[in-house]
Structure formats: C-alpha cells, structure tokens
C-alpha cells in the first residue's frame, strides 16, 4: 500500500513547494494521507467547501477553469477575487484549462493557449503559475506531456474514465515508475494498461 501512496505523497510535497523549479524532496508517506481536489471553479467550492476545510485545517487543490459560463454566471461560479482569496488562504490553485477543453490527439495543438489563459488570469490576481493540472472532460493524451512540462506542470490528475470495478475493492492504484505523474488516477481508478502508463 505504501508504494501505491508514493505518487499521492509526491503530489502533496509538490503542491507544498514555493513554485521554484527545484525538484521536490521525496519524504516518508504519513499514515492516512488524504489529497482533496475540486474542479470546475464552482461557487459552492468557495461558499461551502472552503469554510469546512478552514474549520478542520485541511488543505486542498482547486483546479480552475473559465469554461462553461464562468465569465457571466457568478451565481454558480467563483469570481476571480474568490479564487485569489483561496490562494491567499493557502489553498493550491491548479490549471484545468481556460475553456474546460478536453485534451486529445485532435485538440492538443490548443493546449498551450488553454494553459496560458489560466496562467495569465492567475498572474493578474497574484497567484503563482499553477504546477498541477487536471485533465478536463476525462480526456488525456501523452502528446500533451511535453507541453505540460514546458509550462512547469509537475503533476496531472486524470478523470474517472471508464468507471471500472476492481475485484478487490476500490482504491487509488498507481505504480511509481510505471504510471506517469502526468496521468495519475483519482481514487477509485485502477492502474491498468491504457490508463496513461509510461
């Protein structure tokens, strides 16, 4: 189990960095480590999730996109000031592409523009360039890995596709050295061939 959690702890240690380009130090994995992530810039992340996290002293990563109707619908989506406040309160802000564009072989040529859109919005609000990425729309392609690297992305979390029953139960399954850190599965997803293995 400890080897499976190595990648998860790597994410935690990367997200605690100051954003410089040094490689993170691998540390002993604490017992009962949990990594919380929230996607899509939903307003409830600020109004409901944030207060609970602060109350209990938990950290989290909020993967930000300006997709859907983010720009005009502030009833359902956070404002940029709220996103900046999350950063000031110590939460990590990750990149989820400007338009929530699923990155596939057919759309990878638009990834750089999509990453830059979020990077520029972050810079305008005093937020460091994100070093983590969540693949929108359950789409992934290894053709994006070099672009992610060029943008300083150190870790990427993929979505839950397809939902697969694991005979021994559900749980995070990664294989350090075989699973690329650009396609780590979320909890409940197996490390199976075809799931972004190197």
List the helices and strands and how they pair.
Blueprint: H1 2-15, E1 37-39, H2 43-56, E2 61-64, H3 80-88, E3 92-95, H4 111-124, E4 132-134, H5 145-150, E5 155-157
Parallel strand pairs: 1-2, 2-3, 4-5
What do these coordinates show?
By secondary structure, the protein is α/β, with parallel strands linked by helices. It is built from five helices and five strands, in the order H-E-H-E-H-E-H-E-H-E. The strands form two sheets. The protein has a three-stranded parallel β-sheet with strand order 1-2-3. The chain is globular, with a radius of gyration of 16 Å.
Structural class: alpha/beta
Instruction: Estimate the helix proportion, in percent.
Output: 25-40%
- Can you tell me the residue ranges where pLDDT is under 50 for at least 5 consecutive residues? 1-20, 162-166, 169-174, 188-198
Approximately how much beta-strand content do the residues carry? 5-15%
- Average pLDDT: 79
The gross shape turns out to be: globular
Ends apart, CA distance between termini: 21 Å
Radius of gyration: 16 Å
- Tell me about the largest β-sheet: 3 strands, parallel
Tally of DSSP helical segments: 5
Number of DSSP-assigned strands: 5
Output the strand order for the largest sheet. 1-2-3
List keywords for this structure.
198 residues; alpha/beta; 3-stranded parallel β-sheet; two-stranded parallel ribbon; 5 helices; 5 strands
Brief overview, please?
This protein is an alpha/beta fold. Helices cover 29% and strands 9% of the residues.
